[in-house]
Design brief:
Layout: H1 12-20, E1 46-56, H2 67-84, E2 88-98, H3 104-121, E3 124-132, E4 138-148, E5 162-167, H4 172-180, H5 189-200, H6 206-212, E6 218-222, H7 226-237, E7 240-244, H8 252-258, H9 262-269, E8 276-282, H10 286-296, E9 300-307, E10 311-315
Parallel strand pairs: 2-3, 7-10
Antiparallel strand pairs: 1-4, 2-4, 5-8, 5-9, 6-8, 7-9
Helix pairs in contact: 2-3, 2-6, 4-5, 4-8, 6-10
């Protein structure tokens, strides 16, 4: 039997010209991707906020995931970082490593996903790189945003007596990945679809992030797991943070998969891929935070407090520390 023919795929320069140069058309500093670098102008009174994230097949997405959703997730996880900094997205760079199985149809759908989200979030491709990969797809995006000079939200800044908040719900994306891997065979199609969507297509909280500038004392996006990421705030701020397990917002869909009780909450709070914003703010800001939830249409939940000390604790209803053997996802 003759071997299968190799998939049809654009050459490197045809790929750039046909699919990616059109994504750079709105930014003159990108030079239609015809140069080795781009020019980024920063308005007076603003600072450039830069973040980068890599998503890899088998780690952050599955090979069978729709290519347009893979593209959107790769872009959105970076926009989520900008959201947690209170920055306004401006542009991005794309580095794409492709194995032989990727064909023109996949690439066309991938570029279409980027085009849709560029329109949605008002960002533009300004450059990048394309390389071959021996086996898996790897996508690195560097996102650029603008923040008012000296006003970017940081992980450092939480103070004793501050309150801890988080947007949205926690654990849905991890539950969605678990469902894709075969858990919850008895779930309804509606619940399974809702969870998988949260895994495949995160929602960067950009409006909320901008509204938190001048209000939040510290902030970050929840990417590796709520407990792990809250721990980063505690570490760089030099404080102790206590989270009330009963207050962690876990959706009915995730409860349907993982059940009720503290064990399920621990799993949700350490699963990762949520891309919500966790932040601290003075207790006097409670009313303003509640108003922000109404103004942005994003649920915000009070989940804990900041004290003097070190580390992060997840407390049960009797104020006892729950055992958390793994605080979140780590690559190594």
């Amino acid at each position: 039997m003759a071997p299968d023919p190799p998939p049809k795929r654009f050459g490197e320069f045809a790929l750039i010209a046909k699919l990616f140069a059109p994504l750079a058309a709105k930014d003159k500093g990108a030079f239609a991707l015809s140069d080795d670098a781009a020019v980024v102008s920063v308005p007076a009174g603003s600072e450039l906020v830069v973040t980068t994230d890599t998503v890899v097949e088998g780690v952050h997405f599955l090979r069978d995931d729709p290519a347009e959703l893979i593209a959107k997730k790769a872009l959105r996880v970076n926009l989520s970082d900008l959201a947690a900094k209170g920055a306004v997205p401006k542009s991005y760079l794309l580095a794409l490593s492709l194995p032989k199985w990727v064909d023109n149809q996949w690439l066309t759908r991938f570029a279409a996903g980027l085009a849709e989200d560029q329109n949605r979030y008002a960002v533009t491709l300004i450059g990048g790189d394309t390389t071959s990969s021996p086996s898996t797809v790897a996508i690195t995006i560097t996102a650029l945003g603008l923040a008012e000079s000296g006003r970017m939200l940081r992980r450092a800044g939480a103070r004793p007596r501050d309150i801890v908040f988080v947007s949205g719900t926690i654990g849905d994306a991890g539950a969605g990945l678990a469902a894709l891997r075969g858990e919850g065979t008895g779930l309804s199609d509606f619940v399974r679809s809702a969870l998988v969507s949260r895994y495949q297509l995160p929602e960067p909280r950009l409006a909320l992030g901008r509204a938190l500038v001048g209000l939040a004392s510290a902030a970050l996006d929840v990417s590796d797991g709520l407990i792990a990421d809250i721990g980063h705030i505690a570490e760089v701020s030099g404080v102790k943070i206590s989270i009330d397990a009963v207050r962690v917002p876990v959706s009915a869909s995730t409860r349907a998969l993982w059940g009720e009780g503290n064990d399920a909450t621990v799993r949700a709070a350490t699963a990762g891929d949520d891309y919500e914003i966790a932040f601290t703010a003075p207790a006097s800001a409670r009313a303003r935070v509640e108003a922000l939830a109404r103004e942005t249409g994003v649920d915000i939940h009070e989940i804990g407090r900041v004290d003097a000390g070190k580390g992060v604790l997840l407390l049960d209803e009797r104020n006892r520390a729950l055992p958390v053997t793994r605080t979140g996802f780590t690559h190594f």
